[in-house]
Amino acid sequence: MTSEEKWKAVSSCNNYYDGLFYYAVITTGIFCRPSCKAKTPLKKNTLFFDNIEDALKDGFRPCKMCRPDLNETTYEPNKELIERAKEIIINSYNKPFNRKKIAHKLGVSNNHLARLFKNYYGMTISEYIIGLRMEEATRLLTHTDIEIPEVALKAGVKSMSNFYKSFKERTGLTPKEYRMKSQ
Ligand SMILES: [Zn+2]
């Protein structure tokens, strides 16, 4: 995100950006969420921070109006959206993945969804989906006799080479080794 985009968000009190960054005002020593309704500061007095810790470390105090210091679980306008996204993903992780479709369903842009997800969960949507797929694969390898190519398909991975690569990255074993070990 460019600082120009951040500045636009701040000057329009856009809650779309809450949780993605914070801004601090040098002259007052206070930091806010983008959506804060406090008077918009002068651009030259504004600093941007990716997280609360950095703002605090630089000596800024949380604003009493927008309370950027409050726990994200008690105040987070985008939380519901991101949880709905997660729910859709969990229900369809083994089908071909289409982030645009999910974003459209939630009424936000593709990029915005990607950014929020990363911000909340510290990983991309693709990484999250691969994790779900590999979990399902390990479950099938442990509890069924299904052939390995079929396991990959059931877990939602069409390409066998991708399947082997992701599986090994996650478990340190090949699917065959994993199955032998867990039996
Ligand atoms: Zn504020």
**CATH class term of the largest domain:** Mainly Alpha
- The CATH topology label of the largest domain is Arc Repressor Mutant, subunit A
CATH H-tier superfamily of the largest domain? Homeodomain-like
Shape: elongated
Measured between the Cα atoms of the first and last residue, the distance is 49 Å
Roughly how many Å is the radius of gyration? 21 Å
- What is the total number of structural domains? 2
The overall strand count is 4
Secondary-structure-based class equals alpha+beta
> Please, what is the average pLDDT?
91
Bound small-molecule species: zinc ion
Count every helix, treating DSSP H or I runs of 4 or more residues as helices. Answer: 9
What is the string of SSEs from the N terminus onward? HEEEHEHHHHHHH
What are the segments in which pLDDT stays under 50 over at least 5 consecutive residues?
Answer: none
Beta-strand level of the residues, as a percent range? Answer: 5-15%
Tell me what the CATH architecture of the largest domain is: Orthogonal Bundle
Q: What profile does the largest beta sheet have?
A: 4 strands, mixed
Strand order of the largest sheet: 3-1-2-4
Helix content: 40-55%
Describe the SSE topology.
Blueprint: H1 3-11, E1 22-25, E2 30-32, E3 46-49, H2 52-57, E4 61-62, H3 79-92, H4 99-106, H5 110-121, H6 125-143, H7 148-155, H8 160-171, H9 175-181
Helix pairs in contact: 4-5, 6-7, 6-8, 6-9
The structure holds zinc ion.
